[in-house]
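Note to self: keep these together.
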Amino acid sequence: MNFKKMLILVGVLIVVGAVLAACGGTPTTEPTTAATEAPVAPIPDTPYLAEWQGSAHNDIASEPFRHWDDAAENPDGVPTTCAKCHSSTGYQDYLGLDGSEANKVDAPVPAAEAQGIVCVACHNAGTISKTTVMFPSGVEIKAGDDVRCMECHQGRESKVSVDEFIAQFGEDIDPDAVPAPIKNDQGNDVKLGFRNVHYYAAAATLYGSMTHGGYEYEGQTYDAKNTHVEGYDSCTGCHNPHTLEVKVDQCAFCHEGVATVDDLKDIRMVSSAPDYDGDGNVEEGMYYEIQGLQETLMAEITKYATATAGAEIKYDEATYPYFMGADGKAYGNWTPRLLKAAYNYQVSLKDPGAFAHGNKYIVQLLFDSIADLGGDTSTLARTDAGHFAGDTLPFRDWDFDNDGNPLYTVPFGCVKCHTAQGLPTFLKDGGTTVVTSNGTTSTTGVQSMPSSNGFMCSTCHNEEAWPERYAVNSVVFPSGKTVSFGGQDADGNFVADDSNICIACHQGRESTTSVNNALKGKDADVVDAKIRFKNIHYFAAGATIFGGEVQGAYQYEGKEYVGQNMHADENGKMNKCQDCHDVHALEPKVEACETCHDTTDPAVIRETDVDYDGDGDVTEGIKGEVDTLAEALYAQLQTYAAANGGELTYDAASYPYFYGADGKSYATWTPRLLRAAFNYQYTQKDPGVYVHNPKYIIQILIDSIEDLGGNVSTYTRPEIPAPAE
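Structure:
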């Protein structure tokens, strides 16, 4: 048993012993129909008593515990639907500690017993072994001790319940029309109305798309759990479990200028580069970005309600049911589209810590709601730079298995580049020579890992020698070739360079070697059903830059290829990843191009009068030369395919990319066709090939066209530079 669990157990024994002594007996094992006595208040020597006494959980005079005091309106006290979170008796009933059915409150709790959340609510035989919690969406989350908090701080609605409610009004319901009322089981009319997520749904915000607390629009992807940093990605990691206060002093370890809770609103990490709310301020904290989006969404809700739903709408955060009509009564002209957007607006407001719990998830909900109402999102931002875009496929591809069951686990073959901890784990244990504060390691083995919301600071920065980046001496490419942006010293040893961190991932997953191995012993022009397309994977910029040295593209036997593209700077500048890209926003430093070029647009730059593509235009940018040759290769692929098996089409956005006439994966591959298709895919999956190493790319395009039997007489293949003397 670890020390934390031991402390909890000791606390439980102390509290339970005190309760039993005060009650003068032992707990009954018979089911109860209703609680008859208020939970026993902690005795004076109870651990953490002073901390708890000043907390909201002990504020028994507040609305969460006094809402049911009017006996005329609430003759039964706290109803079963509310008792779990608004009384300690109800919470214990829900756990089944009174002998009743677990995961259900069996009876209302008298209002007099709503005396706050006392020790035994969380410290008891049920919670000490509880490890999972069920959310309103029906998703069950495993989270250890924090499930005690999450049972209540999860909200009471979700995308699932909102959709189910709307579906009752018809399968083909008009999203922009107010539907006719339906009859409930008692024969009463039920109108489409507002669905309230409820208060302080922090866990729903924290877990994002894993629990679907917000209304997530079809066709969109959303951030999952906000992992933040180790030790500060849970309820008790960031909050004192007894005072409930945020551990602000610990936030200050990493966030400068944080001394109060209010200071947290000003925090903005380098992973949040875009101007989400479109106000032109990319320095303000995420709290204010969300606030800006909330204002925009409310304006769209107001406009839509009048113009489409047919009635004015107003919002009052402090008055149930929050959305009111012009007459001051509950708004009544709900359409499905308006309901979804209003629900998300409420989700963003009712968790006051949403900017810390899951700000990216909230940004996405607000953005999509604005867009769905027809608002202008051209100045807004939904997604972050690629390394931090937790809502995109590179980080969300493993959320579910093939049957749609929650997975959230990235397989070992993908963790290095698709999880926050994969790269540092690989550098430590994956066989790459790494110099860290602990010395050099060289072992193997990277296992599957939980999926991430993009990278974290520790993905590239060594936490043990903060803020230094990992010192990577060299990188092994899929071809087996080893290179380094730092070059080699006089003794032939590779020298570390920051750009080596980048190409540890941006290297592709295939090479000339792997293609040749797959095609070994096969006739070049014979269709073989066993041949499968080999995909270079995405953004293999490192392989492009090093060209023939690492053989990332398919290089034909008997041909010579240029090596590392050293660009044009004699001093070694503008030749590495960090020279040309912002290391966090990832955008090219286009302004730096003007140092040597007359434009900041790399697509129109050319430094030669050679007409590589044979179209007679020697003024177009080198990108134009590459694009023309890529188009010619695609045409040649189709011509060859038609002559050797059938129709072939390419779809860059849909795996496995090459398709036959039946719309299914292309199946009539010959070795010759596969090699050329591999190179075509290579040029499409590194969108910066014309900058990274244009001569290398032009060489493989021309060689592929020629190998397929195409006429290359009008093309000019780049020459190999003579070795330096």
